[in-house]
């Protein structure tokens, strides 16, 4: 069920589907009367519409900004269904998404790409399951790009951290709520690029932990408190 849950302060989170074969990322909303911020867009237009209904059910205002934590499809393919938002993302992700936008996305294209590279199978199968109508899918690059860090008018900061999962990975800090949204930043590379030596980037997470931030939210994992995050790194 697509549903937003209050985490802390003005941050609400909606978990993704727990079935790994569906590759559905969670999203977050930073609710504010000055203009709410949506962190990641959903994996498809239909998923975005479910998120919009969940926002209304929770009584949360529609977003004014949409922040991409990185360019991967399960975080950005819902963007075309969000009206009247400014899309914020890292400059390197903008270049990658312009290339993605030029591809002829369809079941036929997915099949052709998997035949060229069998390791794309899990990701492309999930895309086929996620999209109800290819005619309504438009891949959107960010309309506002940054290189190191950008602060939005509501006091939310978006910081580039990079990493092996995606070169444009960024984290979203909500200092007044004690929350950091990590996206997929510490995950290993996508399956079709992963080697046997690749694992979670715990060193990256370690550099991000801060005594003033109590909650750490990854896109495909339950939120962790600061104590839990430190224990996970140490263990």
From TrEMBL:
Annotated Pfam families: Lactamase_B
Parts of the chain that traverse the membrane: none
SMART domains: Lactamase_B (SM00849)
UniProt domain Metallo-beta-lactamase: residue ranges: 24-220
InterPro entries xrefs: Metallo-B-lactamas (IPR001279), NDM-1-like (IPR050855), RibonucZ/Hydroxyglut_hydro (IPR036866)
PANTHER family: ACYL-COENZYME A THIOESTERASE MBLAC2, METALLO-BETA-LACTAMASE DOMAIN-CONTAINING
The protein's name in its UniProt record: Glyoxylase, beta-lactamase superfamily II
